[in-house]
Amino acid sequence: MDIQARKLSFIQEFLKLQNEEIIFRLEKLLMKEKKKISTNDVERMSVEDLNRRIDLSLEDSEKGHLTEVSNLISEIGKWD
User: Fold this and answer.
1) Could you tell me if 27 and 35 are in contact, meaning their C-beta atoms sit under 8 angstroms apart?
2) N or C: which terminus of the chain carries fewer CB neighbours within 10 A?
């Protein structure tokens, strides 16, 4: 059974539920698992990569390659 079929089957079973406690527990489990997945999505970085990024950031700063916060906020306001 592929993932789409499994999701449809789960939804059908979920819609049959009449017990609020079970629904609450499933909601809680879903939120917990989504949070765990989003936390695991953060890519680990080696010390060397971190130091390289720091060096590049310092170099950009020294060269004046910066964006003022007020300019950034103004630009974000135009994103719509």
Assistant:
1) no
2) C
Spatial separation of the C-alpha atoms in residues 19 and 14, rounded to whole Å: 10
Query: In angstroms, rounded to a whole number, what is the distance separating the alpha carbons of residues 17 and 2?
Result: 23
Q: Which two tokens stand for residue 24?
A: 């609450």
Residue type, 14: F
Report the share of the chain in percent with pLDDT over 90: 62
**Residue with token string 């499994």:** 6
Q: How far apart are CA 15 and CA 37, in angstroms?
A: 25
**Angle of CA points 67, 68, 74, to nearest 5°:** 95
